[in-house]
Amino acid sequence: MLSPHEFATLLLVKNAPDLTDIDRGELKTLLEQQLVALEQTVSGIALPTLTPGGQSLLRAMASLISGDALQSNDIRPAEAP
Description:
alpha+beta; Arc Repressor Mutant, subunit A; two-stranded antiparallel ribbon; 3 helices; 43% helix; 12% strand; globular
């Protein structure tokens, strides 16, 4: 399970990889979990990019947030008190 900081870093890699500090502890965790990879640019700079696993995780989270996953029998909305 990702921490909120790790999830935020994953979003940052998706939306602004050039602004992501590669020395962040959260990025190291994402690299270990193979959600992010470092790619060398033409100028020799290493930029983080999402792996297929990272892309899949973000798609799944977007589906949950948009409510599409609530159509599944496995996930039910919480009942109001």
